[in-house]
Amino acid sequence: MRLTRRILVQLAIFGVVAVVAGAVMLFGYIKLPVMLFGVGHYKVTVELPASGGLYPSGNVTYRGTEVGRVEAVHLSDTGVEAVLSLQSNIKIPSDLDAQVHSESAVGEQYVALLPRNATSPPLKNGDVIPVSHATVPPDISALLDATNRGLQAIPHDNLKSVIDESYAAFAGLGPDISRLVRGSSSLARDARKNLDPLLALIDQSKPVLDAQTDTSDSVQAWAAHLADITKSLARHDSAVQGVLQNAGPAAEELRALFDRFKPTLPIVLANLVSVNQVAITYQPDIEQILVLLPQGAQAIQGVGVANRNTKQNYKGGYLSFNLNLNLPPPCTTGFLPITQQRVASDVDYPDLPAGDLYCRVPQDSPLNVRGARNTPCETVPGKRAPTVNMCESDESYVPLNDGFNWKGDPNATLSGQDIPQLPPGSPPAQGAPAAGVVPPPPDTGPPPIAAAEYDPATGTYIGPDGHAYTQSDLARNGAKAPSWQQMLIPPTGN
């Protein structure tokens, strides 16, 4: 028989197609290199308590995707071992659970690998999944036997009632049940897409559940208190209804009140903010006042109680009106000199001079002890200064002199400082001593206190300055007690 060229070409094409189909069958479907040599695969052993219907060539899935096959299933000393052949190009965490499942009620069994976390190292050839991380489905025969025994335990009349009531309960709910099933399927698909977060949630829920268990007493107490509150609300149901019914009108009245306050309320709140800032700054002083206020009230009450039920009751407390004029003398250091002072009878109001005017004697001087120089610094505990700027800076208070030798020099050349005191960084006054000029020596302080004896017969005594003075009311036969006008006049010297 002579074959034509056309027949030869057809035979060649058929042969090529047959070879390609055979190669696809052997390498693609049967996967002969994998079956014979394990190319591109590695083996992992799973220890199972029982076979659970698993057989060789069963599928192995990871996150719902096929990643290998069951190569062999054989008995071991402790149960059953299944050898899995897994693809090398898919990294599977070694910390996982191996579960044997069935694709349907009568379907073939497969192994599902479920990772416990995604941070563990991947599986490698020869790894063993212990029996503690492996589960198999229950025996279907035992399950059917248990179901049959359960049905036999139910009386037939009651079972008929259950079926009838079930029909009455679910009759006509087909569309709703269908939507429930579709929603459950959608939920399952979304859960599969977010498997890692769900697994992390399940793994991390143990501390939360343990905390709930540890605080069960607190939860029970809270539930008991909630029950008490609920019972109280039930007992006062009418009052609660009244509150709910009147809450709307009350809220409307409150809104109208705020609307009426709208023009002035922001200003009041802004002023309260300023007052609040001042109160925060002076918080220690306010606390001190609150601490001393009860003691002061107690002292005042003590003064009044001393005269109770006595002839002096109408007079109140015992007070002394001695004037003690010029003791101590007034402080003139730190103020404008006499030539620049205004007459007390002037009624105009010129601008204040540049600088701070206050008594600038030492802080421990008996002159003007409550002056500005002794004002405590609120933000710097333990420091006293006349101005806020001096309190906030590193500058310390420096007195001009002791206050007893001030003659009204407008430039304060005795100490080389300006009068009045200027803020830090201000240029010095024109009258400050020039460079190279030696200022006069500083004052040595007030004269020492001296004691002198007087003659009780005449009231004459010698003062610290060496002059003789006479205080007539000191004499034994002196005049009567001086009037208040005479008390204002200093004694005269001889």
What does this structure look like?
- It is a single chain.
- The chain has 494 residues and is of the alpha/beta class.
- Helix content is 39%, strand content 12%.
- The protein contains twelve helices and eleven strands.
- It has helices at residues 5-29, 32-37, 140-153, 156-170, 174-193, 195-214, 216-235, 237-261, 265-281, 283-305, 388-392, 484-487; strands at 41-48, 59-62, 65-75, 80-87, 96-102, 109-115, 128-129, 134-135, 454-455, 460-462, 468-470.
- The strands form two sheets. The protein has an eight-stranded mixed beta sheet, with no helix packed on it. It has a three-stranded antiparallel beta sheet with strand order 9-10-11, with no helix packed on it.
- A hairpin with a 6-residue loop joins β5 (96-102) and β6.
- The protein is elongated and about 175 Å long.
- It starts with a helix and ends in a 7-residue tail after the last helix.
- Residues 406-420, 428-441 and 445-449 have low confidence and may be disordered.
